[in-house]
Each structure stands twice: as structure tokens, then as C-alpha cells.
Specification:
9 strands, Arc Repressor Mutant, subunit A, Sugar-binding transcriptional regulator, WH-like_DNA-bd_sf, 2 domains, 318 residues, two-stranded antiparallel sheet, DNA-binding, transcription regulation, alpha/beta, 48% helix, 12% strand, Rossmann fold, NagB/RpiA_transferase-like
């Protein structure tokens, strides 16, 4: 219990610091006490309840979600975009804007940037601001030649991002999924394809999307997945995919025949990349995102507020 004289001193110091905005050095000079004493009195003000610190900003809730997700999954970083009350279209826009901003601000020591495919990653690149990054080379992580939906294939996205960065890119001249395992093996022996896949394995940072093969699936819409494939994947316990590679709720890869026809990085190769940024939105991807996090394929997660809350609640229930 503080004596009246002590309490008065604490209140006086706290008032100068928190209300009048004085520095600890200025307070020290005014009242004739050392800096460590001033620091001790300010701590005492909080410990005794004389001062209570409140953060008044709408971002408080999302920052708390970020910290909880980082701790839960051992993530390097999480960005939760405030999206309550927004339409699905606006939610996606908020997410890709957050992703574009995060990438732009975290390119130090990045010389090779890997880019995956999909509508979310394509939208992110559209939101990316023009800048000069001549030292960075963009590498597609999967094949993606095709007449339909060319704008969401990794080659096209790599090209568009290289334009935004005023930099260079490689091209993986192969389809994402070929007809047979034998054709894949022949293509993988071609020097141009082999070189780009090797570049993809050694990028400093990768940007990926996370898909749900069963709900709002771009893979199905493009025609890469048929009903027969979906039935097989469901039976095998698939909950999501990254770069045409499927995994279950524990994050373990699904051994589906499609794997033998994909030209691109495997999930094990993705794990070896130092920094993998996943940009995902929509509660329909909840189990897909959970599987990706449990599989440790992601270091940085950029996600919407609703899905972030559900992700934590699901884990609590589980």
C-alpha cells in the first residue's frame, strides 16, 4: 500500500508522462530524480492501477487475432485484414491489398521471388503498386499453359508482377498438369523446364494461394479436376491444395495419381523455401488453411478477419 506522499509522486510523474507528453528525461530534470527512478514510478503507476492503458483503434481486435495465430502455429508473421460486414468481393480485395503491401515492404535480401497460380494471387498482382526492383527475378512455381483462364496461370502472373516491379521473370514452358506420367517425365528432362524448376526450389520467398478443391474450386472450373477426381480426393481425405498438390487435414500430402502428372514444386520442396507467404480468404477455405498450417507449408499468413476468428475457434474445439 502506497503512502500518500508516494502516491502523489507516482500520480505527478504519470500525469506529466501520459497527459502532458513529457519525456522521462524532462521529468527527471524537473523533479530531481534519476531516469531509473522515473521508469520505476511509471511502472508502479500501472501495477497499482493508477494508470490503465487502453488502445482505442479498430485494429486492436485484428492485431490480437494475429498474435494468437502466430503463437498457435509458430508463424513468423500474420496479417488479419479487418473485413467484418464487407461483401465477398470486398473481402478478397482487402486481402490482396494487404498481401501486396506486405510483400512490397518485405523484399529486403530477396533476389528470387517465387509466385504460384490462382485467382487470389492474380488479384494480388493487380493491386501491386509499380516500383523499381531491378535486382529481383520472378519465378513461376508451376506450369500453366492453356487457352482458358490464362490470366491465373503462374507464367502470366510472374510476367505481370515483373512488369509491376520493373524486373525480370522466368517462364515455365509446360502445362501445370499433363495427360500422362510418361509425358511429365519427358518434359521434366527438357533443359529449359528443368532450369526453371531448379530456380523455383531455390527462391528466397514464395507467394502462394490455398485452394479448396470441393468448394468454389478454380481447379474444377478450369477443368483440371473431374468429378471422378473429386470423388477420389474426398475418399482419400483431401481438404486443400497448394500449387495442384493436395493435402489432408493434418497437412500430409495426398498420394493421388494427379501428383504424377503435375509439373511444378512438390509440397516437400515448398517446405524448404525460407519464407512462404500464403494469401487466403473465405470461410469455405477454413479446413484447407488449417491443413496447410498443420503441414508447416506456410511462414506468413495473410487472411480475413472472419476466417481468422473461425480458425482459432475450430482449434479450440478440436
Amino acid at each position: 500500500m502506497l503512502k500518500w506522499e508516494e502516491r502523489r509522486q507516482v500520480v505527478k510523474v504519470a500525469n506529466l508522462y501520459y497527459i502532458d507528453g513529457w519525456t522521462q528525461a524532462q521529468i527527471s530534470k524537473k523533479i530531481g530524480a534519476s531516469r531509473p527512478i522515473i521508469s520505476k514510478l511509471l511502472n508502479m503507476a500501472k501495477e497499482t492501477g493508477i494508470v490503465e492503458v487502453f488502445i482505442k483503434d479498430e485494429s486492436v481486435h485484428t492485431v490480437e487475432l494475429e498474435q494468437q495465430l502466430e503463437k498457435k502455429y509458430g508463424l513468423e508473421d500474420v496479417v488479419v485484414a479487418p473485413t467484418i460486414g464487407l461483401s465477398p468481393e470486398m473481402v478478397k480485395r482487402k486481402i490482396v491489398q494487404a498481401g501486396a503491401h506486405y510483400i512490397s515492404k518485405n523484399l529486403k535480401n530477396v533476389n528470387h521471388l517465387g509466385i504460384s497460380w490462382g485467382t487470389t494471387v492474380a488479384e494480388l498482382v493487380k493491386e501491386y503498386q509499380f516500383e523499381r526492383r531491378k535486382d529481383i527475378k520472378i519465378i513461376p512455381l508451376e506450369g500453366g499453359m492453356g487457352r482458358r483462364f490464362g490470366e491465373v496461370h503462374a507464367n502470366q502472373i510472374a510476367y505481370e508482377l515483373a512488369k509491376k516491379m520493373n524486373s525480370r521473370c522466368s517462364y515455365l514452358y509446360a502445362p501445370a498438369i499433363v495427360e500422362t506420367k510418361e509425358l511429365k517425365e519427358r518434359l521434366m528432362e527438357m533443359q529449359d523446364i528443368k532450369t526453371v524448376l531448379e530456380e523455383g526450389k531455390n527462391v528466397d520467398m514464395a507467394v502462394i494461394g490455398i485452394g479448396n478443391p470441393f468448394k468454389e474450386s478454380t481447379l474444377k472450373e478450369i477443368g483440371y479436376l473431374q468429378d471422378r477426381d473429386l470423388d477420389d480426393l474426398c475418399t482419400m481425405g483431401a481438404v486443400g491444395d497448394i500449387g495442384f498438390r493436395f493435402f489432408n487435414e493434418s497437412g500430409k500430402p495426398i498420394r493421388h495419381p494427379l501428383n504424377d502428372k503435375v509439373i511444378g514444386l512438390s509440397l516437400d520442396q515448398l517446405k524448404q523455401i525460407k519464407k512462404v507467404i500464403a494469401v487466403a480468404d473465405g470461410t469455405h477455405k477454413l479446413k484447407s488453411i488449417m491443413g496447410a498450417l498443420r503441414g508447416n507449408y506456410v511462414n506468413v499468413l495473410i487472411i480475413d478477419e472472419q476466417t481468422a476468428s473461425m480458425l482459432l475457434n475450430e482449434e479450440i474445439k478440436g
